[in-house]
Amino acid sequence: MRHLLDIQSLSSEEIHGLLNLAENVKEILYRPIPKVPTLRGKLVLLLFYEPSTRTKFSFERACKVLSADTMSFSAKGSSLEKGETILDTIKNLYALGVNLVVIRHSLSGTPHFIAKHLKIPVVNAGDGIHEHPTQALLDLLTVREKLRTFTDRKVAIIGDIKHSRVAHSDILAFQKLGASVFVTGPAHLLPEPKEIPFFEVKPGGFKVCLKPREALQDADVVIALRIQKERHGEAFIPSLREYAQNFGLGPRELEWIKPGGLLMHPGPINWGVELAHELEKYPFQVILDQVENGVAVRMAVLLSLLSGE
Fold it and tell me: What H or E segment, with its residue span, contains residue 26?
């Protein structure tokens, strides 16, 4: 694996390999001194053109645990404001001795474009409405820790499927490991028929459901998504209140899923919209487990790309 650009190009064996490595390195986080010298001398460039909390700080934490140095880039105040292209910016930063680039960008395909022009690894931290591979990997790790297997599991994803790069990566990732994926949300925020073949991956299955109960019924895992307002360009829902009434998750909706079914959310959460406030105390809510596993997964990705592990 030279880059991590998407889930689509990964085999199930490669995914399992990354999850196994993440499980192994996670124990480092619990040591009295959570730090190893494995990537000492390596320089990681964090190139975020969009806001980020969990992903950016998770990568920073992963780098520190592995003793890699980081260099964070902010578009504001950079030469981009003087007309410099993103490719020239990265080439100049590469000349400073960067060993790996982590990039988030609003334009789908940007990490792939950058990877074609660099001799160092590129990690996609989210590109437009395309994919967010490390989020899918941490979701997989969280489910594997709790449920042990993906075979014959039903995963329900509810929300703005059309514009969610998390949903696109999760749909592919869970199917590749043997789960079936059911998606639901407002009809105009579901994938178009011509887009559905992109998601038809074996051995798992994929189904678009217009009624939330069909997707949630007997689900082992439920992943709630926020409305991607910043990617719409127009109002796709009448109001957040109406969305909450029709597609928000509360105690009643969780009665439909399997006993012990996991509740997940990639964040940021709009409490009272995607999730009712009562669900903060739902015993099988694993949202903070996802955040913790994000560090382990990103450590595994950095190790795979920079040390050949």
Answer: helix 12-26
Q: Whose structure tokens read 């969305």?
A: 243
Measure CA of the first residue to CA of the last residue in the chain; give whole Å: 10
- Distances, alpha carbon 182 to alpha carbons 47, 117, 133, 156, 225, in Å: 33, 37, 19, 5, 14
Place of tokens 């719409």: 232
Return the DSSP state at 258: P
Residue pair 298/58 in contact by the 8 Å Cβ criterion: yes
Beta-strand pair 154-158/180-184: parallel
Cβ–Cβ under 8 Å, residues 297 and 134: yes
Confirm if 274 and 225 have CB atoms less than 8 A apart: yes
Helix (H) or strand (E) holding 21: helix 12-26
Reported as a single tens digit per residue, the pLDDT across 68-89 is 999 998 766 566 666 778 889 8
- The domains found in the chain, sorted by start residue, are 12-131+290-306 (3.40.50.1370), 133-286 (3.40.50.1370)
- Summarised one tens digit per residue, pLDDT across range 211-264 is 999 999 999 999 999 876 655 455 567 788 889 999 999 999 999 999 999 999
Average pLDDT over residues 274-290: 96
- Half-sphere exposure of residue 307: CA atoms within 13 angstroms, side-chain side: 17
Give the integer Cα–Cα distance in Å for 274 and 247: 7
pLDDT tens, position by position, 163-192: 999 999 999 999 999 999 999 999 989 987
Q: Would you state the pLDDT for residue 199?
A: 60
Buried/exposed code over 132-154 (b: 16+ C-beta within 10 A; e: otherwise): bbbbbbbbbbbbbebeeebeebb
